[in-house]
Amino acid sequence: MLYVFTGTNEHSVREHAFLWVATAQKKEPHLTYVRLDGDEIDESAFELIIGSGALFVNRLLVLIDDPYATSVSALSREMLNAHLDELAHTNNAIVIIAPRRGNTNQKPLLEKAIKVYVFDKKTTGALERKFNSALVNALGERNPEKLWLEIVRAFRAGDTPEMIHGLLHWKARELIKRGSRMWTRAQARSLSINILSVLGNSRRTGSDLSLDIERFALSIRESV
């Protein structure tokens, strides 16, 4: 089963995809979750996703993050398009984040999906919030006070803890790939693990995820 999150509002696309994944995990706790960046697509990945029935008791929940990004090789995109029919008919849940940029042709992907969620930037009406850009930038800057403030603002504006957690983990993955002045790649890998543990600990103990995320934000200067 293939689910696609697309649209010109990339932050909203990501937020809702992460929330969908978190909700699916709550509804079906025994799902085995696998996350792949767009540039991690290869034949072995498709063997895992499509051929997992003989290897795993549990169904897979697979998130493929931005396989149509310009940084992803043409070969990977062609490989994905070649396997779309199989992805659409597998019993596993496949979620693809595919923000709409320029003239990127995603028509075959959209035609195969069982459900397409579209989040476009507003052209009229209220101004769009900018909290989430500032939020991920604060994590990149390793600024705990600013990160905490942006997280609180996002909560007050209605963003769920799962959405915020997904954005934080996405940013950590970006730091792993690129490194930064404030985070080495090794530190970013530890950061990614720590962010995942926040959600895992919350589910295991029943603690308030929103408060756990706020505590984590205030600890990033000393962490990793």
Key features?
10 helices, alpha/beta, globular, Rossmann fold, 13% strand
End-to-end Cα distance: 38 Å
Mean pLDDT: 84
Total count of helical runs of at least 4 residues: 10
How is the largest sheet built, in terms of strand order?
Answer: 2-3-4-1-5
CATH superfamily of the largest domain: P-loop containing nucleotide triphosphate hydrolases
Describe this structure in words.
The chain is an alpha/beta fold. The protein has two domains: 2-118, P-loop containing nucleotide triphosphate hydrolases (Rossmann fold); 131-215. Helices cover 53% and strands 13% of the residues. The protein has helices at 10-27, 43-50, 74-82, 84-89, 107-112, 131-140, 144-156, 161-178, 185-205, 209-218, and strands at 2-7, 32-37, 60-65, 93-99, 115-118. The protein has a five-stranded parallel β-sheet. The chain starts with a strand and ends in a 6-residue tail after the last helix.
Gist?
With 224 residues, this protein is an alpha/beta fold. The chain is built from ten helices and five strands, in the order βαβαβααβαβααααα. It has two domains: 2-118, P-loop containing nucleotide triphosphate hydrolases (Rossmann fold); 131-215.
Task: Summarize the SSE layout with pairings.
Elements: E1 2-7, H1 10-27, E2 32-37, H2 43-50, E3 60-65, H3 74-82, H4 84-89, E4 93-99, H5 107-112, E5 115-118, H6 131-140, H7 144-156, H8 161-178, H9 185-205, H10 209-218
Helix pairs in contact: 1-8, 6-7, 6-8, 7-10, 8-9, 9-10
